[in-house]
Prior knowledge:
This protein has helices at residues 50-53, 138-152, 155-161, 187-208, and strands at 13-19, 61-63, 75-79, 95-100, 126-131, 166-172, 175-181. It is α+β, with helices and mostly antiparallel strands. The chain has one domain (13-110, 124-208).
Amino acid sequence: MTPSWLITALGAVCLFLSVDVAFAARGKAGLRTPASPGHRSRDAACPIACHIAGPNPSNWSLYHNFDQLQFCHHTLFYDFSLYDRVDDPDTLHRLYTCSSSGPDLSSLPRPSAQMASVVESVNLTYSLGWWTEGALAASDIISASKQMRYYLKSQHVATRSAERSTFSFARTGSAAIGVYIGRGLQSEGIASFALKTLADNLRTQNQLR
């Protein structure tokens, strides 16, 4: 069952990891129809590609449950209401989803550099938590965090994060990550520092085993 990631801490940045996530739900998808179990090709079973739909979740494929996404082996990005109990298989949900393979998201438009008239320094607190079922899937976490960095650096997210808090969720293989960035914080800076530091530490720990 998908763990409850929805922890709010205003002005802080939180990163959550879940390993060996099992998406067990029932229902059918909306906008774009996923492939049936008899047609499980790598691409046909996936929602619209993120680099085609863009970083705005309103342009992503709409699903009501997780079940038909289980055959997609690309990285998946999710957007849903924080009040939606998405792990309830008996309820229809609104899950906006797109898929990413490799460096697709690196081609998204980046925000143009602008000089701020007033710069305010803010002390940030980074929080890290995880749920583990089985072996730590370091390679999957590193892959998901890398593509999350590309997404957070996009122009749409940078503009939106200046106005409201940002919640982003992604899954690669057996690892799922969730990121919360408080309103007014620079999403591109978070992507360049926090997520990269996480990936570097995971690589180091993996080499020490």
